[in-house]
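subagent[fold] <- orchestrator: predict structure for attached chain, return tokens only, no commentary.
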Amino acid sequence: MELQQLQKSVEAVSVQYAKTFEIDRTGTWFMLKLQEEVGELVQAFLAMKGMGRDRGYSEEELRDRFAQECADVLAQFLLLAKNEEVDLEAAIQEKWLSRLGH
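subagent[fold] -> orchestrator:
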């Protein structure tokens, strides 16, 4: 799936989420929601690595929880970038891929 298509898909989910929970998706909300998800990712990572509470989850469940939090962080990041009208493909090309001579 292309990055822009992924952004459109997570946007559709986010719009529905906002309607369901009556959330005003402002720029500040997008940033704070990303921060919340990063915190949950850190918590899942620490549990997976045995440096935090495992809450009774198996190794497989901890790994799955970490993967789910990675997905949340990526989705919220894509939403923030979309909201701020960042062309991620162009920015990645300029910042990262240009170093490869592409």
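orchestrator: received. Logging for downstream: The CA atoms of residues 51 and 73 lie 21 Å apart. Residues 3-100 form a domain with the Helix Hairpins fold (CATH 1.10.287.1080).
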